[in-house]
Amino acid sequence: MIENKHYFISASLALMFSFDVFSNEPKVCFFIKENYQGDSLCTTQGNAVELLPTDWNDRISSISVPHGMSVTVFNNADFSGESLTFKENIESLFSPKWSNLNNSISSFKVRVAACFYESDNFEGESICLSGNEKIDLFRLSNLSYDQHYVLNPLNDRVDSIKVPEDIQVTVYKDNDFSGDYFVLADDFYYDELEKIGMNYAITSIKVSQQEYFICDQHCVVKGTYNIPLGHAFGDYWLDDRVKYKDVLVSFRLSGEDNYTINLIDGSLIKVIGRVVMLIHRNHQENTFMFELSERSDTISFLLRFNGGYSEAQFIESVGTEAVYISPLVGSLFDFGLINENLIVNSFSNEKLLIINKVVLTVEKDDVRSGRSVLGIAACWAVPMINIYNYIIQGRCNQVDRFVSNVKDFFSGHNDKILQVSGTARPLPRKNVEDIIAAETALENINININININININNNTSTDVEGRLTHITVDMHGGSLTVPATALACSVPMKEQLLPQLRRSRDLTPRCVEWTLNILTDFTLLFGDSIATWNAENFGRVIERILKMGDTGYAVVNSEPERRLVDNVREHLAANADNMIHMKTAFNFSQLSYADYLHHQTPEEVVHSPIIAQELPLGRYELALENFHFIETVPRIRHEGRWVEEPDLHFEIEVISGITVETQAARGVVLPVINEWRQIYHQINHPELAGASGKFVHTSATANSTAIEAGLLVSDVAQSWLRTSHDDYIYVVVRLRGQVISITMALDINEFDTGIAGSLTNPQYVLHPEGEGAVRGAGTAAIRALADHLSKKGKRSLVSDVISKPSAIVKKKVGFKFINEF
Fold it and tell me: What DSSP character marks residue 258?
């Protein structure tokens, strides 16, 4: 009981005198007398009065509450004091159970509710349901008309639905909350219900109320829909014990879709019809386009967040069978915010967007790091294998890895997966017969996504050996040349360790990563405008000048990078021979990356300098070695203006691999050849180097200038590697009739994978590519021999990282520049 006040809230008056507007909407009514007699005050869902008018304060004796609605009453103003919540009629507050509130109610709240109308535009007979309420209209229609006079006509008769903010409605076609269903979070009119087949079809209904709601199955999107990732992951988002935060968002594919998904790294996924575009706002020139299959009915986006590095890919499917799996597209983002959202924007007026599933999981480690975990190459090739199983049923099933208990997740093995959001569950395993069929289907999928990789120059074109584009990194913080080189030099996994930490506040580990990357980056900023200054010779000269004189010896425009370069060189390279060798090795890797970029440019394309190439996307191609079958490559010889296969000739291939002491003799045999090639490449760029010998190098009109520049860079590195090799370096030397045609260099990235470092071709065939007697096929022969060698050693994959600009749309493949030969 409270004292009467001489004022009442203006909202109360507005409330009492505006009810006629909602004449067909169910109302909670308060009566001065028992049994719903005397004067009444009625209100609709979502309304509240913090102080009843004087004539009503402490005078309420009975309350009528429509089915599905809820009201909370308080015996003090401002929603304070003793309170009770009613979900059904109260005939008399004189009852001993409620007597303490009889004539004692001073404020009330009617819970927000969704309302369902018999006619369009929220008109006609209606019912309202508050959060956590449900109703079966079919069953209630069989009750007496007196008991539920409103519900009877609404079975299969709902034509419009009003859904307040933070309210979610699930509508079912059948009784007992079964049959086809959809989840709605916006107002729906007749024509919109018709588009999803729910006009005159709703039989049972559930209503929920959540502020941070994630609609995880059969969700209808109108306009904008937010998925609150940070809130859903909660403490896992910033927990260092959790390596991966994975998200699955699966959509129905109608062929008439038009929507976007705003990602937290600044990327944008856009779907128009049957075309998917991946756009990075900070690098819109790096847009990747994919054309979808006409038979696909589902498109699922898989997202992964690891520290400050995010990745996205999509899977096309028909039912639970995959049609196409895209490469991962990665980017850096500012890690640390907890209020991150995925934002889905639908723009189609003809088709409503349907989200089939939303699932969030966390994982502590990368199961792909071990060969035995998945056991088969096709499954290893699926990066986000954990959430893949929610949409695809096949031999890559991971059901045994899922746990539901947080304690089991953190105390168990690192391969466990914890689902933190979503009611969907991974699809069950298939039986043996289905697995055999699935293997065939998955092999066909891999055929669709295989592409060719070229690690050779000289326009050798063979498509017999194919690698799969598995990753595209769009944003490497301007380090497409220097970041991979640093990772290789410091023996750090780039995608799993270096990139996630690159923009985080904590120190990069191991310690060499930070200063190696800084030196490479600043040297490229200062001298990367041309390979005339961005080369091994000038790199060594600048380092030596800094150590002796404290400056670069150049009049630079930007003094800040020079200051940083000088400071890092003097701190980490002075009086430290090991660090000096390490730094030269890192720059070698950077040169090889740029040379590889040059190899893949066509005459029609603009060739960018190293400093610009730093901003280009980086693609990773992987050739699975588990079932690799060696095929001999037939040499092709230029004869009388045409290329002729010579089956009677055979490439002689030597693989030099092992500890440096054991490979020294073999390297010593090849080194003089590489020295001669290097001299020729340098003379092309600097004719004055011919000296007194009088030997001048002539080039034909068909010679590719970028291939010559690439040869110049690779010859420097090849000479350095052969002189001071490492145990994890591999050389593949290809000869024909005893003459060395090419040398391919590779290195072991880890115990499972080997990376292609670079390739150098006899300059005779680069300077005169169409000359009589020119040879082709050596590059293919080298890669086949290398793959065969590695496969026998138990290696998992052969990897090639390629810098390239995105190309136009490519049917059933990817919007990335294809490489001619692997």
Answer: E
Phi, then psi, of 585 in degrees rounded to 5: -65, -45
Alpha-carbon distance of 245 to 480, in angstroms, equals: 25
Q: How confident is the model at residue 184 (pLDDT cuts 50, 70, 90)?
A: very high
CATH topology of domain 113-209: Gamma-B Crystallin; domain 1 (2.60.20)
Q: Could you tell me the pLDDT band of residue 582, with boundaries at 50, 70 and 90? A: very high
Pairwise CA distance, residues 107 & 97, whole Å: 19
What is the distance between the alpha carbons of residues 663 and 667, in angstroms, rounded to a whole number? 6
Of 567, 594, 564, give the one whose Cα is nearest residue 484: 594
Closest alpha carbon to 707 in 644, 779, 654 = 779
Exposed/middle/buried for 699, CB within 10 Å: 0-12, 13-18, 19+?
middle
Instruction: Give the whole-number percent of the chain exceeding pLDDT 70.
Output: 82
CA distance 34 to 13: 24
- Kindly report the CATH number that applies to the domain delimited by 618-803: 3.40.630
CATH class, domain 479-613, is alpha beta
User: Amino acid identity, residue 808?
Assistant: A
| pTM of this structure | 0.83
Q: How far apart are CA 453 and CA 450, in angstroms?
A: 10
E strand or H helix at 590: helix 577-599
Question: Which burial class, exposed, middle or buried, applies to 573 when counting CB atoms under 10 A from its CB (0-12, 13-18, 19+)?
Answer: buried
Neighbours of 603 (CB within 10 A): 8
pLDDT in tens, 623-659: 888 888 899 999 999 999 999 999 999 999 999 999 9
Sign of CA dihedral 230, 235, 239, 242: negative
128-144 per-residue burial string, b: 16 or more CB within 10 A, e: under 16? bbbbebebbbbebbeee
110 is written with which tokens? 């009617």
